[in-house]
């Protein structure tokens, strides 16, 4: 059984077809890239997987369990976490608190424990803080734990968003353009970071990205969308030489000229 099995996923917004018959099977441990022009429907696919949008039709099955109709917090609890194309941090609170927030449902105490400051409450809080600090160290943010999230440089804000996603201990991590707005050195560092956390946390990663060099270097399997549909799937070499991809996404000049 695949970890994530999507069949015939379709989304209409009124009379506009945003996604049509999106079908993919992702095995445990894979790192799969999803590319395509702006407006191709990539983020809409992620929004349907995570319950932020209901599909018009089609199925989404994670570890044998249907996700269609499940609210986002239940999907998070089931083992799927994500980042966003536009960073969504709690800018007015600390870096540490940003990572602690998604740990709440795992802490294992009730309101009475919290009000009475019971030993169970104190122990669970200490455990949560220790794990959050461990994540920050892993993501290179250990020295910024008490800084306000909005005061971090852009590249570190991207890392913080990944740390927050990892706090829920996902088995599937969806990354929506994690290298957006980064310079070449930051992109190279992000590639190494994704490889590292995938190995360290035994993750399956599904990635949207416009940085073509990053996708080609990072993802053994790539899907290409155009006008809401998958138009190609294969290895980086196969994608680079696919005529339909060159026409729809990379332009007639081909990957070498476009990249």
Output the keywords.
259 residues; alpha/beta; Rossmann fold; 6-stranded mixed sheet; 11 helices; 10 strands; globular; disordered C terminus
Would you kindly provide a written description of the structure presented here, covering whatever features stand out?
There is one protein chain. This protein is α/β, with parallel strands linked by helices and 259 residues long. It has a domain at 4-79 and 170-258: Rossmann fold (3-Layer(aba) Sandwich), CATH 3.40.50. 39% of the residues lie in helices and 23% in strands. It has 11 helices and 10 strands. Strands 6-7-8-3-9-10 form a 6-stranded mixed beta sheet, with helices on both faces. Strands 2-1-4-5 form a 4-stranded antiparallel beta sheet, with helices on one face. A hairpin with a 2-residue loop joins strand 1 (4-13) and strand 2. The chain is globular and about 60 Å long.
Order of helices and strands: EEEHEEHEHHHHEHEHEEHHH
- C-alpha-based Rg, rounded: 19 Å
Number of helices: 11
Just name the CATH architecture of the domain at 4-79 and 170-258: 3-Layer(aba) Sandwich
How do the strands of the widest beta sheet line up side by side?
6-7-8-3-9-10
> Helical amount among residues, as a percent range?
25-40%
CATH topology category name of the domain at 4-79 and 170-258:
Rossmann fold
């Amino acid at each position: 059984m695949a970890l994530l099995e999507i069949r015939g996923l379709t989304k209409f917004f009124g009379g506009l077809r945003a996604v049509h018959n999106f079908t993919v099977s992702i095995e445990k441990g894979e790192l799969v890239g999803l590319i395509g022009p702006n407006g191709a429907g990539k983020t809409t696919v992620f929004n349907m997987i995570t319950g932020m949008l209901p599909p018009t039709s089609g199925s989404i099955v994670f570890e044998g369990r249907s996700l269609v109709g499940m609210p986002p917090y239940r999907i998070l609890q089931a083992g799927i976490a994500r980042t966003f194309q536009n960073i969504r941090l709690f800018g007015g609170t600390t870096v540490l608190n940003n990572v602690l927030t998604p740990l709440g449902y795992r802490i294992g105490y009730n309101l009475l424990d919290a009000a009475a400051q019971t030993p169970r409450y104190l122990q669970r809080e200490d455990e949560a803080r220790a794990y959050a600090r461990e994540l920050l160290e892993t993501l290179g943010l250990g020295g910024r734990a008490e800084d306000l999230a909005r005061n971090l440089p852009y590249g570190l804000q991207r890392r913080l968003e990944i740390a927050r996603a990892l706090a829920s201990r996902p088995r599937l991590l969806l990354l929506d353009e994690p290298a957006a707005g980064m310079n070449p050195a930051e992109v190279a560092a992000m590639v190494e970071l994704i490889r590292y956390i995938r190995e360290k946390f035994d993750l399956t990663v599904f990635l949207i990205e416009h940085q073509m060099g990053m996708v080609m270097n990072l993802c053994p399997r790539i899907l290409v969308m155009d006008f809401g549909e998958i138009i190609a799937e294969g290895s980086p070499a196969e994608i680079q030489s696919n005529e339909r991809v060159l026409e729809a996404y990379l332009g007639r000049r081909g990957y070498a000229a476009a990249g």
